[in-house]
UniProtKB/TrEMBL annotation:
<dbReference type="InterPro" id="IPR041492">
    <property type="entry name" value="HAD_2"/>
</dbReference>
<keyword id="KW-0378">Hydrolase</keyword>
<dbReference type="Pfam" id="PF13419">
    <property type="entry name" value="HAD_2"/>
</dbReference>
<dbReference type="GO" id="GO:0005829">
    <property type="term" value="C:cytosol"/>
</dbReference>
<protein>
    <submittedName>
        <fullName>Phosphonatase-like hydrolase</fullName>
    </submittedName>
</protein>
<dbReference type="GO" id="GO:0006281">
    <property type="term" value="P:DNA repair"/>
</dbReference>
<dbReference type="InterPro" id="IPR036412">
    <property type="entry name" value="HAD-like_sf"/>
</dbReference>
<dbReference type="InterPro" id="IPR023214">
    <property type="entry name" value="HAD_sf"/>
</dbReference>
<dbReference type="InterPro" id="IPR023198">
    <property type="entry name" value="PGP-like_dom2"/>
</dbReference>
<dbReference type="GO" id="GO:0008967">
    <property type="term" value="F:phosphoglycolate phosphatase activity"/>
</dbReference>
<dbReference type="InterPro" id="IPR050155">
    <property type="entry name" value="HAD-like_hydrolase_sf"/>
</dbReference>
Length: 236
């Protein structure tokens, strides 16, 4: 009998949170300012989206500029953390379209709602505060890059979420995110479904290159997908 879906793990920025790409615009500005480069936002999104942010900087430097320099990357990362904190304090941050509605529907379906992110915990919790999202109320858990040894595309964050709720079978989990690395994370974790959404970093063709189970344009499209997936287990 197929395991029913018990948990949906959502990425934050670009998936459930609308912050107008502030994080990657800030990353672009810091890299260009410190290094004297002229990287575009498209390049930063292509190579850095979804990753833990120090790793994102290293990947952008290597793939876009053929630079491998851990000291430079660390300098940029520390500058980025302060710049992002300042940017978030001034910015308007909103739930992504239909995020609140979907969270309520999943609660009614007795499906856990977990956010995971390439942000560190301090940054992620500051976002939750701006959104007025409360763990245990609006969502069931928050798992961040600073909570685990290895970050996306490794499955550590999803594995930790499952462990926290005693979900032994990853086939009871759906992962959704707006970047290729989100999809790979879900696949590496053995999730029942790994879903891409076009509301953030990567467009549909980029997402499809990672062979997701679905690519959607709106969060509410998840509901019929889960209902359809769960039908066989209900009939057995």
């Amino acid at each position: 009998m197929r395991e029913a879906i018990k948990m949906v793990v959502f990425d934050m920025a670009g998936t459930t949170v609308n912050e107008d790409n502030i994080v990657y615009k800030t990353l672009q500005q810091v890299i260009n300012h410190i290094g004297g480069y002229q990287l575009t936002l498209t390049e930063v999104l292509e190579h850095g989206a979804g990753k833990e942010k120090l790793q994102a900087i290293k990947t952008v430097l290597k793939n876009c500029l053929n630079i491998v320099d851990d000291q430079l990357a660390e300098q940029m990362f520390q500058s980025f953390l302060q710049a992002l904190e300042n940017a978030y304090e001034a910015a308007d941050i909103y739930p992504n379209s239909n995020a609140n509605e979907l969270f309520a529907i999943l609660k009614d379906m007795n499906i856990l709602r977990v956010l995971n992110t390439g942000y560190d915990r301090k940054t992620a919790e500051s976002l939750l505060k701006k959104l007025n999202w409360v763990v245990g109320q609006d969502i069931d858990a928050l798992i961040t890059a600073s909570d685990v040894p290895k970050n996306r595309p490794y499955p550590d964050m999803i594995d930790l979420a499952r462990a926290n709720f005693a979900i032994t079978d990853p086939k009871g989990v759906v992962k959704i995110g707006d970047s290729i690395i989100d999809i790979k994370e879900g696949q590496n974790a053995g999730c029942a479904l790994s879903i891409g959404i076009t509301t953030g970093a990567h467009h549909a063709d980029q997402l499809k290159s990672a062979n997701p189970d679905y690519v959607i344009d709106d969060l509410l499209e998840i509901v019929p997908i889960i209902e359809k997936y769960n039908i066989p287990s209900q009939l057995v």
